[in-house]
Amino acid sequence: MGFLSVLSFAHKQIEGRLAPGDMAVDATVGTGADTVFLAKAAGPKGRVFGFDIQEQALRLAEERISREPAGGMASVSLFLASHALMTAYIPPECRGRIGAVMFNLGYLPAADADKLIITKTDSTLEALEAAFSLLRPKGIITAVLYPGHAGGAAEAEAVTAWAAGLPQGACQTVMYRQLQRSDAPYVIAIEKKR
Question: Which residue has the higher pLDDT, 90 or 70?
């Protein structure tokens, strides 16, 4: 048995922390794979909020969601908006109660997508700050980083520095990374303590 892929590692970290009835955020909806994962983990009494700046991403996610059996997933609200604006869209009563926030940075992984539309360092750092403020105690943020594409290395470096600078009293952070390839994707996970 080999190591988990970065996406499987991110999912594994969330599986143990997100319970049925919880609320979660997919900060970068993409094709909806993480949205569906979170909606299944949160179950029919949970809620998932998803954000993407591309209409194509939201359409792909809606198609993926529609293929799932009815009744087994959380309600999903998708927003055509930057992840940096998540606190403006998530209802006030949900703040401080979010169990998991997933980031899968980079570009939309669809065959016909414009690969020049990528997540940007400034808005990603704003979104991470917002996500941390929304978490409940023992809630988790996972960020899959892709240093191998144009703009990805600078974003990955900035996110890594941000996570490393978080106070130990407030959270703990871990990194899952292949050390022999500097351009390989990797995951940072942040668990809020209080």
Answer: 90
- We report the CATH number of the domain holding residue 72 as 3.40.50.150
CA–CA distance, 170 with 154 (Å, rounded to integer)? 26
Separation between Cα atoms, residue 182 and residue 140, nearest integer Å: 25
Residue range 140-152, pLDDT digits in tens: 999 999 999 989 9
Residue 95 lies in a domain: yes
What domain range includes position 107? 6-192
68 phi, psi to nearest 5 deg? -85, 150
If we measure between CA atoms, which residue out of 37, 21, 17 comes closest to residue 29?
37
| Contact between residue 29 and residue 57 where contact means Cβ atoms under 8 Å apart | yes
**CB-CB contact of 44 with 173 (8 Å):** no
The domain total for the chain is: 1
Query: Is 1 a member of any domain?
Result: no
- The yes-or-no verdict on residue 116 having pLDDT over 90 is no
Residue 1 has a pLDDT of 73
Q: What integer is the mean pLDDT of 172-179?
A: 95
Half-sphere exposure of 71 (CA within 13 A, CB side): 0
